[in-house]
UniProtKB/TrEMBL annotation:
Biological processes, Gene Ontology terms: purine nucleoside catabolic process
Alphabetized PANTHER family for the sequence: FI09636P-RELATED, URIDINE PHOSPHORYLASE
Keyword Glycosyltransferase: yes
Catalytic activity: uridine + phosphate = alpha-D-ribose 1-phosphate + uracil
Nucleoside phosphorylase domain mapped to chain residues: 32-269
Name of the featured protein: Uridine phosphorylase
Listed Pfam families: PNP_UDP_1 (PF01048)
Keyword tags: Glycosyltransferase, Transferase
Record GO terms (molecular function): purine-nucleoside phosphorylase activity; uridine phosphorylase activity
EC number: 2.4.2.3
One GO cellular component term: cytosol
InterPro entries from the UniProt entry: Nucleoside_phosphorylase_d (IPR000845), Nucleoside_phosphorylase_sf (IPR035994)
Entry-linked Gene3D superfamilies: Nucleoside phosphorylase domain (3.40.50.1580)
Length: 290
């Protein structure tokens, strides 16, 4: 029996669009660029021709068009893995659930997600201006722990070593570790990008070891993060969405990768807020290679 998704579980608006994104199934391309900032959607779409759809609701702005003949959807997610739960689930539903019957389609449609974001660099070799492709993402956000199959898609040995190195506080949620899609990584992360391990945090300040007026629970967190090595890998950067993008995509059978521009280096304590031209270079590289 094909499972029926009730009205409360898969919420469809009166016009046939999905609840949060306000997008209809026919307007989703197979290739999807995810960006945090709704303003970055226009920057990506400025490279498109043949724009076929533009919709907006809350922080979710979507444009579908063509880049050198390839049909691509660019979607803003806002900040955080909680929003990625909404965006990736709703896009998967648009692709793989028949809205008329509210049942799963018989044929699976695979989507490709590339997130283009900004991040904080954690190594001396990731200064501001570096493009980092997340070969592996560690989720400090907890999202994937709510889904069955989490252990099958995560690198449990890496997690064990990381938790031991960090002397992990059990009051925090369990960190989960997911690899990017290998073929997508090899295609997109060429010599002009650093491949690294990214931690996606459930916050910009405390979870990323930034101390303003409130002291941190573990003042040594970032030092331990920066020193961690496993199988020749180092943790290169902090951002806030890559783990959920990689984890949910892997559970659903989609391909995913996150590429970020370093806009702050935590080691040398420098930041660059004038990064629009540099992120545009990253956008063009990803559009060419997706
Ligand atoms: C924090 O400033 C935001 O910037 C980074 C983080 O992941 C977080 O979303 O990414 P975006 O530039 O894509 O939003
Ligand atoms: N985004 C983050 O999440 N952290 C940084 O330090 C910079 C951008």
């Amino acid at each position: 029996m094909n499972k029926y998704f009730a009205e409360s579980e898969l919420i469809i608006n009166g016009d046939g669009s999905i609840f949060h994104l306000h997008l209809k199934p026919e307007h989703l391309a197979d290739k999807i660029i995810l960006v945090g900032d709704p303003g970055r959607v226009s920057l990506v779409a400025s490279h498109f021709t043949d724009i076929e759809e533009e919709v907006e609701n809350r922080e979710f702005r979507t444009v579908t068009g063509r880049y050198k003949g390839k049909r691509i959807t660019v979607q803003s997610t806002g900040i955080g893995c909680d929003n990625i739960d909404i965006v990736v689930n709703e896009m998967d539903a648009l692709a793989n659930i028949d809205f008329a019957t509210r049942t799963e389609k018989s044929e699976f449609r695979q989507l490709t997600f590339v997130r283009i974001g900004t991040c904080g660099g954690l190594q001396m070799y990731t200064p501001t201006g570096t493009f980092v492709a997340s070969q592996k993402s560690i989720g400090f956000d907890g999202l994937l722990n709510f889904y069955a199959g989490r252990n099958e898609v995560c690198d449990l040995e890496f997690e064990k070593a990381f938790k031991a190195h960090m002397n992990w506080n059990p009051q925090l949620c369990d960190p989960y570790t997911v690899d990017a899609d290998k073929e997508l990584l090899d295609r997109i992360a060429q010599d002009d990008m650093v491949r690294g391990v990214t931690i996606a945090c459930g916050g910009f300040f405390g979870p990323q070891g930034r101390e303003l007026r409130i002291p941190l629970a573990d003042p040594k967190q970032n030092e331990k993060v920066e020193n961690f090595t496993y199988d020749g890998l180092h943790i290169t950067n902090f951002e806030m969405e890559s783990s959920a993008v990689a984890g949910l995509s892997k559970l659903m059978g989609h391909k995913a990768l996150t590429c970020c521009l370093v806009i702050a280096n935590r080691r040398v304590k420098e930041a660059n807020t004038g990064y629009k031209n540099t992120i545009d270079q990253l956008i063009v590289k990803v559009l060419d290679r997706i």
